[in-house]
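seq as requested:
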Amino acid sequence: MLLLPATVTAREARDAVRMLAQTLRRESDGGVVIDASALSQFDSAVLAVLLECQRLAQAWGKGFAVRHAPAKLLALARLYGVDALLPFEGIAAPAAA
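struct tokens:
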């Protein structure tokens, strides 16, 4: 399982993709699971990161899923119309206010 960093904005997106891509290659052939539970600060760039990771996983013949996505990430994915493209599993509990 791969962990998304706590912050993924336009500033961190390129490094996040690079780091995840390196790890994606080493993941088992069965599939790649990205754990988004640590994600606390993000913008729409995180969607691009997840879509790119999914594209890479598919290109390497691996399955792909995103687990424990914060509710705000799901809302952002719906807003941009990519919620049907990303396989979200197990939604994280809402953060305390």
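The helical segments are 10-26, 45-59, 71-79.
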